[in-house]
Write a structure and sequence with these properties.
Layout lengths: L16 E4 L5 E4 L13 E3 L5 E3 L6 E4 L14 H4 L10
């Protein structure tokens, strides 16, 4: 993953990228510092208002959208067996 530099400033904050996979998880790409250490902290709150701090030792995480994961909030591939179909797509 590359960090994009702004024309306005020499110092740009890290960019967290979110990719919505069709009928699958929400993929979170976390930026890493040059030495490989995490450069951001990310917290997700589910619909029950339970907060999860995402592990930052990985550069890519997949978050469940089907609601069937045994490892919530993370995707465990359950969307493939429960025939999950997303009602909306990101635009």
């Amino acid at each position: 993953m590359t960090l994009q530099k702004s024309k306005k400033s020499a110092i740009e904050p890290p960019i967290v990228r979110l990719r919505c996979r069709e009928d699958g998880p929400l993929v979170v790409e976390l930026p890493q510092a040059i030495d490989g250490t995490p450069s951001v902290s990310v917290q997700v709150t589910d619909h029950h208002r339970v907060a999860f701090t995402l592990p930052t030792h990985k550069s890519v995480l997949a978050l469940c959208r089907c609601g069937k994961s045994a490892n919530r909030p993370f995707c465990d591939g359950s969307h493939k067996t429960c025939e999950f179909r997303a009602g909306e797509t990101a635009r």
